[in-house]
Design goal:
This protein has about 120 residues and is mainly alpha-helical. It contains five helices and two strands.
Length: about 120
Protein backbone atom coordinates (compact mmCIF):
# COMPACT_ATOMS: atom_id res chain seq x y z
CA UNK A 1 0.00 0.00 0.00
CA UNK A 2 2.85 2.36 0.83
CA UNK A 3 4.44 1.80 -2.61
CA UNK A 4 1.15 2.67 -4.35
CA UNK A 5 0.90 5.87 -2.32
CA UNK A 6 4.48 6.79 -3.21
CA UNK A 7 3.81 6.15 -6.92
CA UNK A 8 0.74 8.40 -6.77
CA UNK A 9 2.81 11.11 -5.07
CA UNK A 10 5.47 10.66 -7.74
CA UNK A 11 2.80 10.96 -10.45
CA UNK A 12 1.52 14.18 -8.88
CA UNK A 13 5.08 15.52 -8.72
CA UNK A 14 5.80 14.59 -12.32
CA UNK A 15 2.52 16.15 -13.45
CA UNK A 16 3.28 19.40 -11.64
CA UNK A 17 6.82 19.52 -13.01
CA UNK A 18 5.55 18.90 -16.55
CA UNK A 19 3.66 22.20 -16.30
CA UNK A 20 6.79 24.02 -15.12
CA UNK A 21 9.45 22.50 -17.38
CA UNK A 22 8.89 22.89 -21.12
CA UNK A 23 11.09 19.90 -22.00
CA UNK A 24 8.88 17.27 -20.33
CA UNK A 25 5.49 16.29 -21.74
CA UNK A 26 2.83 13.64 -21.20
CA UNK A 27 0.26 12.72 -23.84
CA UNK A 28 -2.38 11.56 -21.35
CA UNK A 29 -2.95 11.07 -17.63
CA UNK A 30 -2.47 7.33 -18.14
CA UNK A 31 0.99 7.85 -19.62
CA UNK A 32 1.78 9.99 -16.55
CA UNK A 33 0.71 7.20 -14.17
CA UNK A 34 2.57 4.53 -16.14
CA UNK A 35 5.68 6.70 -16.27
CA UNK A 36 5.46 7.26 -12.50
CA UNK A 37 5.17 3.50 -12.01
CA UNK A 38 8.21 2.84 -14.21
CA UNK A 39 10.25 5.55 -12.46
CA UNK A 40 9.14 4.23 -9.07
CA UNK A 41 10.20 0.69 -9.95
CA UNK A 42 13.49 1.94 -11.41
CA UNK A 43 14.15 3.94 -8.24
CA UNK A 44 13.38 0.91 -6.09
CA UNK A 45 15.39 -1.64 -8.12
CA UNK A 46 18.01 0.03 -10.31
CA UNK A 47 18.91 3.13 -8.30
CA UNK A 48 20.58 1.30 -5.36
CA UNK A 49 22.59 -0.85 -7.78
CA UNK A 50 23.72 2.19 -9.78
CA UNK A 51 24.65 4.09 -6.62
CA UNK A 52 26.69 1.11 -5.42
CA UNK A 53 28.65 0.85 -8.67
CA UNK A 54 29.24 4.60 -8.89
CA UNK A 55 30.00 5.04 -5.19
CA UNK A 56 33.42 6.66 -5.78
CA UNK A 57 31.79 9.31 -8.01
CA UNK A 58 29.02 9.85 -5.48
CA UNK A 59 31.56 10.33 -2.69
CA UNK A 60 33.86 12.63 -4.68
CA UNK A 61 30.89 14.77 -5.81
CA UNK A 62 29.51 14.86 -2.25
CA UNK A 63 26.35 13.10 -3.37
CA UNK A 64 25.57 15.32 -6.35
CA UNK A 65 26.16 12.45 -8.79
CA UNK A 66 22.94 10.91 -7.46
CA UNK A 67 21.06 13.63 -9.36
CA UNK A 68 22.73 12.41 -12.57
CA UNK A 69 21.57 8.87 -11.76
CA UNK A 70 18.02 10.15 -11.13
CA UNK A 71 18.06 12.03 -14.43
CA UNK A 72 19.29 8.93 -16.22
CA UNK A 73 16.49 6.83 -14.76
CA UNK A 74 13.94 9.49 -15.74
CA UNK A 75 15.40 9.58 -19.26
CA UNK A 76 15.27 5.77 -19.42
CA UNK A 77 11.61 5.84 -18.40
CA UNK A 78 10.89 8.34 -21.17
CA UNK A 79 12.33 5.88 -23.66
CA UNK A 80 10.32 2.95 -22.29
CA UNK A 81 6.89 4.61 -21.85
CA UNK A 82 4.99 5.75 -24.91
CA UNK A 83 3.36 9.09 -24.31
CA UNK A 84 6.17 10.37 -22.05
CA UNK A 85 8.53 12.75 -23.84
CA UNK A 86 11.78 14.33 -22.67
CA UNK A 87 13.57 16.58 -25.15
CA UNK A 88 17.10 16.02 -23.82
CA UNK A 89 19.12 14.76 -20.89
CA UNK A 90 19.48 18.33 -19.59
CA UNK A 91 15.71 18.69 -19.35
CA UNK A 92 15.71 15.34 -17.54
CA UNK A 93 18.28 16.68 -15.09
CA UNK A 94 16.24 19.80 -14.36
CA UNK A 95 13.03 17.77 -14.12
CA UNK A 96 14.62 15.23 -11.77
CA UNK A 97 15.78 18.02 -9.45
CA UNK A 98 12.31 19.55 -9.35
CA UNK A 99 10.57 16.17 -9.03
CA UNK A 100 12.84 15.35 -6.09
CA UNK A 101 11.94 18.60 -4.33
CA UNK A 102 8.20 18.36 -4.98
CA UNK A 103 8.13 14.67 -4.03
CA UNK A 104 9.97 15.39 -0.80
CA UNK A 105 7.42 18.04 0.18
CA UNK A 106 4.42 15.90 -0.81
CA UNK A 107 5.80 12.81 0.95
CA UNK A 108 6.29 14.85 4.10
CA UNK A 109 2.75 16.23 3.89
CA UNK A 110 1.01 12.94 3.06
CA UNK A 111 3.11 10.34 4.86
CA UNK A 112 4.25 12.57 7.69
CA UNK A 113 7.48 12.09 9.55
CA UNK A 114 6.85 8.49 10.60
CA UNK A 115 9.92 6.28 10.60
CA UNK A 116 10.46 3.49 8.08
CA UNK A 117 9.62 0.04 9.31
Amino acid sequence: MRFVLRVLILAASMGLVSYLVPGIKFDSPWSLVIAALVVGLANAILRPILIFFTLPLVIVSLGLFVFIINAGLLYLASRLVTGFHLESFWWALLASLLISLVSMVLNRMVLGSEKKR
